[in-house]
Amino acid sequence: MDEKFLESARREPRPEFTAELRGKLARQVATTREPRRLALRPELAIAAGVVVAAAAALIAFPSVRASAEAFLDLFRVRNFTAVSFDRARMDKLRSLDAGKGLMVLEHASGEAQAPEPIVYPNAAAAGAAAGLDVRQPGYLPAGFALDTVMVEAQGESRMTVNEPKLRALLDALDLHDVTIPPGLNGQSVTVRRPPVVIQHFRRGRSEIALIQARSPEVTLPPGVDLERLGEIGLRILGLDAGEARHIAASIDWHSTLVIPVPLEASSFRHVTVQGNPGLLIQSRGEAGTEHERIREGTVILWSEGDRVFGVMSGLSGPDLIQVAESVR
Amino acid sequence: MSSETAVLSRWIPWSAPAREADWEALYAEQMPRVYNFFRYRVGDGAEAEDLTSATFERAWRSRARYRGDLAGFAAWLFAIARNLAVDHYRARRPHVPLEAAESLAAPGSADRDAAHRSDCERLLVLLSALPDRERELISLKYGAGLTNRAIARVTGLGESNVGTILHRTIAGLRERWDRKETHHG
């Protein structure tokens, strides 16, 4: 008798039992469903880009959601672009943050986190709550139907910059050649996040999410050098000095949302949606931690006037572009 | 379960705290573990399925609390499973004398499948004769496939203590098993 033998009495559960219990759990969830929470706060996605875009250097930490959300409002989104980063760098940032709490932006007033989304019975009701003429897709792949409509209420918060922590972060990353623009410490950034409408369309376990909002707004201290801060953000993401400088100089940091995407697991390309500039990001999927993984899927972000849209799904790029093109 | 809406969040490191749990993946992975924990713990058959169902139904009611900590959720699942096993024994404590294990025929057939089934049945009967704590640890280790560290987390025992108890229990099982082999040999 050895360990292998002791394990040999294991059995796969009967398929009928597995399916029956799965169904029972699904029914239980359906009958006790709380208002659904978004895994991704849409503005957080925007925030991530703005982190790089605007003061990126100042944050760059996963635990600093409030900080990230604050930075989303540093500008109005008109264009999108993406920057590849090495996942190892993000792991390093996480470990630094976990060990030292290097929060570069400190919450000063207003909401610290975005509120939970509220479920509405239909798009019209959500639109009335959000003060937005909610647009809907004219085309959905066969079998998809509207499942849930939610609104995340508007919010405002003010953050202040902690320059010593930024310096500590740069040191921890061995970025000793990076100079911080003078006068940042204690400066405040005010974030105003308009309401966000999220529509979920479902076909069995597959889902398409359509997110729309007016562009968030941020009030910055006068004289902030966004290009310089963006360059620092890119360095923090792992780009070398020359690359960061070159990319930073090529971006309009007042209107471009820069999305960091993991080099190993995804690709991106610029697209046009209804004649407007957009970005398509495709994930090839990636094994994650024990129960988390990066799923295969597609995200399309685009803007139209003062509005930003995002559509995301496990569908292929061409299918999702068709959905995006049909949003009216 | 998580949805494709999580895709973007998974690209964006800042959104990590908002990662949504992949409940379907968790179910697919943990259900067989919980089921086999009960098979080793209370025996094969309908009881193992009933207790597995009860564990998941209870856990699912409050799963939202564990959205950001699926490892914690898995540990919680087994905490529920342990409690249900205790309740089960309180309600109906089966008495399985050690002789029952020895009464099962040792494999002598040329039919390997039949021999394997017989071995497994005999093992489960041997397990049923173990004291509660030993059987629980064997069930967590070899039924559910947990590591000693995970077992320590679930049971509150020290990791080295878990290893020691398992070692001693396996030695006892082996001795009883071999004793029977000798009888049949």
Q: How would you portray this structure in words?
A:
With 328 residues, chain A is of the alpha+beta class. Chain A has ten helices and 14 strands. In chain A, the strands form three sheets. In chain A, strands 3-4-7-8-14-13-12-11 form an eight-stranded antiparallel beta sheet, with helices on one face. Chain A has a four-stranded antiparallel beta sheet with strand order 2-5-6-9, covered by helices on one side. In chain A, β12 (276-287) and β13 (293-304) form a beta hairpin. Chain B is 72% helix and 0% strand. Chain B has helices spanning 6-11, 23-42, 46-61, 70-91, 98-103, 112-128, 132-143, 148-155, 159-184. Chain B starts with 5 loop residues before the first helix and ends with a helix. Classes of the chains: A alpha+beta (328), B mainly alpha (185). The interface between A and B is large, with 74 and 62 residues.
Strand order across the largest sheet of chain A: 3-4-7-8-14-13-12-11
Question: How far is the first residue's CA from the last residue's CA of chain A?
Answer: 68 Å
Major sheet of chain B: none
List the secondary-structure elements of chain A in sequence, H or E: HHHHEHEEHEEHEEEEHHEEEEEH
Largest interface, Cβ cutoff 8 Å: A-B, 74 and 62 residues
- In DSSP terms (H or I, runs of 4 or more residues), the helix count of chain B works out at 9
Strand content of chain A: 25-35%
Q: How many β-strand runs of chain A?
A: 14
Structural class of chain B: mainly alpha
